[in-house]
TrEMBL record:
Source organism of this protein record: Lactovum miscens
Pathway(s) annotated for this protein in UniProt: Carbohydrate metabolism; D-tagatose 6-phosphate degradation; D-glyceraldehyde 3-phosphate and glycerone phosphate from D-tagatose 6-phosphate: step 1/2
Top EC class, one word: transferase
Domain of life: Bacteria
Protein's name in the database: Tagatose-6-phosphate kinase
Database matches in CDD domains: FruK_PfkB_like (cd01164)
EC number: 2.7.1.144
GO cellular component, one term: cytosol
């Protein structure tokens, strides 16, 4: 079983405009609401691929109720921890030229909330995969992911993790199955700038040497790299019309885990991950399995040298 963990979920409220003018009344041409949060996006993509998964996290209030009901309508199993506070609302504003996200803070969590949540890990077993993604509410402290990872490893399960910067590096000693920084995140982590693809190779290898089992570096419209202990692979980009980039990275991780959990074939998992991320970018919301397959068939992967 794959479990996704979203510690700070959100109701994402999308608003589209032709143009946005500050200081004036702007009337939207389209609005929609979807369950949000990186782990929840992973669950939604896994569901699109018809891969069983369970969404974990903290939810509360009418926004939390909306998230739970929306996911269950999509056939996603949920085992959220109910809290007193209100799940946040994030506003996503899209114009013809820009995408802007206005993200709110999450609710305060009590020690009882935390203890109730930790019991969800008691049933983990060998072969399970837990995907951690996104921010941690301030009330949980800086080291909460470390605690959760130890619980996962104690049960003999695997974990994937998608968090920012130096916090990601701290988790590598625990040997995550997959991490997926994008180019900008990798530049920030190591305080460098990349001018070409080959510049990335030493840093992908460094992440492996620090403990990651597999590393995907996404390069937006320039494709993606997969670093394994044995080889490095490059997935050429697929051309298309960008409709909504929110959740593309989460979809890539979900696609990788979906295939890996069934075949343990890292190259096929990489291709599936890139297909899911690509299909997400080219869709307003979550892509269909048919469209994901169409993208999969267009992806070309080649083995590349380590910058030679």
């Amino acid at each position: 079983m794959i479990f996704t963990v979203t510690l700070n979920p959100a109701l994402d409220y999308f608003m589209e405009y032709h143009e946005l003018e500050n200081g004036l009344v702007n009337r939207t041409k389209l609005t929609r609401m979807t369950p949000g949060g990186k782990g929840i996006m992973e669950s939604r993509m896994l569901s699109s691929l018809d891969v069983p998964n369970t969404a974990l996290g903290f939810i509360g209030g009418f926004t939390g109720k909306f998230i739970r009901e929306s996911l269950e309508q999509q056939g996603i199993k949920t085992d959220f921890t109910q809290v007193f506070g209100q799940t946040r609302i994030n506003v996503k504003i899209k114009t013809r030229s820009d995408e802007t996200s206005l993200d709110a803070a999450g609710p305060d969590l009590t020690s009882e909330d935390v203890n109730n949540f930790l019991t969800k890990f008691d049933t983990l077993q060998e072969g399970d995969i837990v995907a951690f993604a996104g921010t941690v509410p301030k009330s949980l402290g800086e080291n909460f992911y470390d605690l959760l990872i130890r619980l996962v490893k104690t049960r003999g399960a695997e974990f994937a993790i998608d968090i920012d910067g130096q916090k990601l590096l701290k988790t590598l000693l625990m040997k995550p199955l997959i991490i997926k920084p994008n180019v900008e995140e990798l530049e920030e982590i190591f305080s460098v700038k990349f001018s070409k693809k080959d510049d990335i190779f030493p840093y992908g290898q460094k992440l492996l040497s620090m403990g990651a089992q597999n590393v995907i570096v996404s390069m937006a419209g320039d494709g993606a790299l997969l670093f394994t202990k044995e080889k490095v692979y490059f997935a050429q980009p697929v051309k298309g019309i960008i409709k909504n980039s929110v959740g593309a990275g989460d979809s890539t991780v979900a696609g990788f885990l979906a295939e890996w959990s069934q075949s343990h074939d890292v190259l096929t998992a990489f291709k599936q991950g890139v297909a899911c991320g690509t299909a997400k970018v080219f869709s307003e919301d979550m892509p269909s399995a048919r469209f994901i397959q169409k993208c999969y068939e267009q992806i070309k992967i080649e083995e590349v040298s380590n910058g030679d």
